[in-house]
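Q: Given only this backbone (308 positions), what sequence would you predict?
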């Protein structure tokens, strides 16, 4: 196992996270561990190396400030994908105690501004934070736009903050005991937590288990999700939902045809936003035996050792 220390003060092997990543040989046979000492690292990071461990020592913030409407080098707005502060595309990666942030500003002013993009299999995040506004956490492009395996991602004891579609993409992702924070933009529709683009051949998209959905936004103003693609799959299990969650729960993004293809479901949730009496008719309230299809083991096909 190779160990690398990154320190802004100069006390480590590198002062830059990207320089440390770039130092790892292509095709390295051993696992690499990066210890990143406290500080704000303003770098637009690309992390393509597999078998990598990143550990924050103290408060570590990986930040950048690009946004979708910002002109690129060709004068054309860079778009959502290019706005990402950090890109992770290497499989078998584990990240702990790190804050990923896009500091571009409010969604009404800058549009989409992604804190982290992940297109990797067996990606684990524990005790991490993901902070932005619109499109905070991007979990792989849809299949038709870029070939991907819709990798497996696992989040545990993380904080994710944003307003519009701030957890989105085509991955199969499991969120365990995370805090999902909807920012207050002071509008009648204050936002959408998810925008899944689950491939049609996948049984599970985004699964939230024992998470807390919180906000200081007005009551009945935030949707649980809307479908970025027609087979979006999102499930909330045993979560605590604040009063900001809209009573109908889900939005079809003006595409009524998806009412027959999406799988939006809930089970065992509580709190003022969990009342299902007037949920949209095309969402589902699971029975106990149906909820069993969305345990961690079921979602990842029994292969869960990598999440520990």
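A: Predicted residues:
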């Amino acid at each position: 196992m190779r160990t690398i220390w990154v320190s802004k003060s100069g006390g480590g092997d590198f002062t830059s996270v990207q320089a440390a990543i770039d130092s790892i040989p292509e095709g390295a046979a051993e696992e690499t561990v990066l210890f990143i000492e406290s500080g704000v690292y303003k770098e637009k990071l690309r992390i393509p190396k597999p078998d990598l461990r990143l550990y924050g020592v103290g408060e570590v913030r990986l930040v950048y400030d690009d946004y979708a409407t910002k002109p690129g080098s060709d004068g054309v707005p860079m778009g959502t994908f290019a706005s990402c502060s950090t890109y992770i595309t290497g499989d078998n990666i584990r990240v702990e105690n790190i804050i990923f942030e896009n500091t571009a500003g409010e969604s009404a002013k800058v549009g989409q501004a992604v804190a982290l993009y992940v297109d990797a299999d067996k990606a684990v995040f524990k005790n991490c934070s993901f902070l932005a506004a619109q499109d905070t956490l991007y979990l792989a492009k849809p299949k038709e736009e870029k070939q991907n395996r819709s990798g497996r991602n696992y989040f545990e004891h993380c904080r994710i903050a944003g307003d519009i579609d701030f957890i989105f993409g085509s991955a199969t992702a499991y969120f365990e005991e995370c805090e999902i924070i909807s920012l207050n933009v002071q509008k009648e529709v204050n936002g959408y937590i998810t925008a899944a683009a689950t491939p049609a051949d996948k049984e599970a998209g985004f699964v939230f288990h024992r998470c807390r959905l919180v906000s200081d936004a007005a009551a009945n103003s935030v949707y649980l999700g809307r479908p970025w693609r027609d087979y979006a799959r999102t499930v909330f299990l045993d979560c605590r939902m604040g009063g900001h969650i809209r009573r109908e729960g889900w939005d079809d993004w003006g595409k009524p045809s998806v009412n027959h293809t999406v799988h939006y479901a809930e089970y065992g949730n509580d709190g003022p936003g969990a009342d299902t009496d007037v949920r949209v008719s095309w969402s589902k309230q699971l029975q106990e035996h149906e909820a069993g299809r969305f345990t961690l083991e079921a979602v990842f096909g029994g292969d869960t050792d990598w999440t520990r």
